[in-house]
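Support reply, case 0932

Customer input (verbatim):
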Amino acid sequence: MKNIKQIGAAVIVVALLGGLTACGGMSTRQRDTAIGAGVGAAGGAAIGGNALSTLGGAAVGGIIGNQVGK
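Our regenerated output:
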């Protein structure tokens, strides 16, 4: 079951990164925030496997992604 969660998380990350290529009008900070949120959500889903861990991962990842460029 854990392998299925990891595959699902990887698919989410790939889909997010693919979708970001269409957002050429985003600033670097916006892009980093979106990537951080996507990676955090995938990590939270892989680790916790429930909606709360996914949302928590997305929140933490988005904050980290936003602060990287400062």
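We compared this against your earlier run and they match. Two observations from our side: Residues 1-9+29-70 form one domain. DSSP finds three helices and no strands in the chain. Please reopen the case if you see a mismatch on your end.
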